[in-house]
From TrEMBL:
Gene3D superfamilies membership: Histidine kinase-like ATPase, C-terminal domain
Start and end residues of each Histidine kinase/HSP90-like ATPase domain: 33-142
Taxonomic source organism: Streptomyces klenkii
SUPFAM superfamilies attached to this UniProt entry: ATPase domain of HSP90 chaperone/DNA topoisomerase II/histidine kinase
Keyword Chloroplast appears in the UniProt entry: no
Highest taxon, organism lineage: Bacteria
UniProt protein name: ATP-binding protein
Listed GO MF terms: ATP binding; protein serine/threonine kinase activity
Keyword GTP-binding tagged: no
Coiled-coil portions: none
Length: 166
């Protein structure tokens, strides 16, 4: 992946379409508890962050994608039993990053398994999450974390409307 200058990419940005990490104008992240109430926390965090960045109009699409990514992490990426005294290490984290013309939401979790799109029939209550992520974002992907970090990051990119470029 190419970047501007000699900027070294953090594990969070690996795998994204070329965007210089140094050009991030805003970023925010939050740790999420290993409970399904975390989806509500992620949506609230997303709403507050987007409103603070003047991007409140994007909330519906971004929140749907964030909800799916967080739900998938909680459902498929956490070990069945808590590790070391009830805490999961590393926690599920939601990251929101804004570049001049793009917004990225990324969810880090402790699993190293790739996300897989399910084949859900019309009556199924689950199995459409990554289809929704693909439908509502401009692109999405994932990558394993490297070095001392274990797990993966699943991200979705949204191109900002021209009037949102700042």
């Amino acid at each position: 992946m190419g970047t501007e200058g000699s900027t070294v990419l953090s594990p969070l940005w690996r795998g994204l379409p070329p965007i210089a990490p140094s050009a991030v104008s805003n970023s925010a992240s939050c740790a999420l508890p290993p409970r399904f109430e975390a989806v509500r926390t992620a949506r609230t965090f997303t709403r507050t962050t987007l409103q603070g960045w003047g991007l409140g109009g994007l909330f519906d699409d971004v929140a749907l994608v964030v909800s799916e990514l967080v739900t998938n992490s909680l459902r498929y990426a956490l070990p069945p039993e808590p590790i070391s005294g009830g805490a999961y290490e590393p926690p599920v984290r939601l990251h929101l990053m804004r570049w001049t013309s793009r917004l990225v939401c990324a969810v880090r979790d402790p699993s190293e398994q790739s996300p897989t799109a399910g084949e859900a029939d019309a009556s199924a209550e689950c199995g459409r999450g990554l289809f929704l992520v693909e439908s509502f974002s401009d692109t999405w992907g994932w990558h394993p974390l490297a070095g001392a970090l274990h797990g993966k990051v699943v991200w979705a990119l949204f191109r900002l409307p021209r009037e949102q470029h700042a």
